[in-house]
Specification:
single chain; about 180 residues; alpha/beta; Rossmann fold; 2 domains; 6 helices; about 45% helix
């Protein structure tokens, strides 16, 4: 019922922040500014343990996590394009590189290319948040995309995308289409 803020709980607290509170970081920072001068005895969230001890630590961690996230999503003024791909035999990667070359010839854009089979979910989510546009490439197997692409799509949360962001998803198939 009550939090202890031991090592295990601190990790769980971070996970809770990441999956539930992170999209509301801007509001959380404002709320923390309002409660800092108050003499608080309990923090009673809508669900989860009640904070009675280590309240300062709970508030400081929340402020740190929210501030760190706001630094990631604050626009930099750069045009960032994420090209994420899965490439079974190298053809989709090759297509992605050709597209990246064409994009670079036509504008001042920073491109980050990632093989989504070889990147952590946290790193991929950060890349998604930082980009203004995204292309996703995948070979098709049995007329379907691959699991890593579905995982990428699950990381796109409309609450986490800046108001001025546009996400464009375009499937670049590395496999030949079946002729009917």
């Amino acid at each position: 019922m009550f939090s202890e803020f031991n090592e295990t709980y601190t990790g769980t607290y971070k996970y809770y922040f990441d999956v539930i509170m992170k999209p509301f970081s801007r509001f959380m920072l404002r709320a923390i500014d309002h409660i800092k001068p108050l003499d608080i005895e309990f923090i009673c969230p809508g669900h989860g343990p009640i904070h009675h001890k280590n309240l300062k630590k709970a508030i400081e961690l929340s402020e740190k996590y929210a501030s760190d996230y706001m630094k990631i999503i604050t626009p930099t003024g750069q045009n960032n394009l994420l090209i994420a791909y899965v490439s079974a035999y190298g053809y989709t990667k090759e297509a992605a590189e050709i597209i990246a070359g064409g994009v670079l010839e036509n504008g001042e854009i920073t491109i980050k290319m990632v093989d989504i089979e070889n990147i952590s979910d946290d790193e991929l989510e950060t890349d998604i948040i930082k980009c203004e546009g995204m292309l996703v490439g995948s070979p098709t197997i049995n007329q379907n995309t691959l699991l890593p692409v579905y995982k990428l799509l699950a990381l796109i949360n409309p609450l986490r995308i800046r108001e001025n962001s546009v996400v464009h998803l375009d499937l670049m198939a590395g496999a030949e289409r079946r002729q009917e």
